[in-house]
Design brief:
The chain has 8 helices and 5 strands; from the N terminus they run ααββααβαββααα. With about 180 residues, it is of the alpha+beta class. The chain has a 5-stranded mixed sheet.
Length: about 180
C-alpha cells in the first residue's frame, strides 16, 4: 500500500501487482500514477496509448521490444535503481508482445507532458497537477466590451450585431405582450 500519509505506492506494492495494474489499465480503471519508496515519487506507470499519444516513441529511446509483465515484476527493483542512478530508459511492457503500459522516471514523464521540473529538493508527483487559479492582486473583472476591444474590430462588430439582435428580439416580445 502507499506509505502512510502518501498517495505514492511503493516499488514493492507495484512489483507484486503488475498483473493487476495491467488489468486496471485495460478496463480504464486507473490513470498514470507515480510510485517509489519512502512516499517519494520516483517512477510513473502509464498506458502505452498515453505514451504514444504524447509522442513518447519520438521523444525517447527506450528498451527494445515489449517486456512481459512477469519480467517487469522481476526487474522493477532494478529499474527503479537505474532511475535513481539517472541511467534509465523507458520500458514498454504488456502481455503477449502487445504494448500496453510504460514505465518512465518522473523526470521523463514531465518531459513527455511538457511540464517544468520542480525546484531542486522538491518532492513532486507529476501525475497530480494543481494549478493556481486565484486572481492576481492587481486583477480586475473585464467587461465584454473590453474583451472585444482586445480581440479587434471584427469581434467588436459581431458583438454589436448580437446586441442589436437581442434588442430587436426584446422589442418584439414587448409588443407581443402589450397587444390585446
Amino acid at each position: 500500500m502507499a506509505t502512510e500519509g502518501s498517495r505514492v505506492r511503493s516499488v514493492d506494492d507495484v512489483r507484486r501487482d503488475v498483473a493487476g495494474v495491467l488489468a486496471r489499465f485495460r478496463r480504464g480503471r486507473t490513470w498514470a500514477f507515480s510510485f517509489g519508496d519512502g512516499g517519494v515519487p520516483e517512477a510513473v506507470l502509464l498506458t502505452y496509448d498515453e505514451f504514444e499519444d504524447l509522442g513518447g516513441e519520438e521523444k525517447f529511446e527506450r528498451r527494445p521490444g515489449v517486456v512481459a509483465a512477469e519480467v517487469v515484476g522481476t526487474e522493477l527493483g532494478a529499474m527503479v535503481a537505474a532511475i535513481r542512478d539517472g541511467a534509465f530508459v523507458p520500458v514498454v511492457w504488456g502481455d503477449g508482445g502487445e504494448p500496453e503500459a510504460v514505465i518512465l522516471s518522473t523526470s521523463q514523464y514531465r518531459e513527455l507532458r511538457g511540464d517544468d521540473e520542480p525546484p531542486p529538493g522538491t518532492i513532486d508527483d507529476p501525475t497530480h497537477r494543481v494549478y493556481a487559479t486565484e486572481p492576481l492582486p492587481d486583477s480586475r473583472p473585464m467587461t465584454v466590451d473590453e474583451i472585444a476591444e482586445m480581440m479587434g474590430p471584427y469581434t467588436q462588430q459581431v458583438l454589436a450585431e448580437i446586441r442589436e439582435e437581442e434588442r430587436e428580439k426584446a422589442e418584439r416580445e414587448r409588443r407581443e405582450e402589450d397587444s390585446p
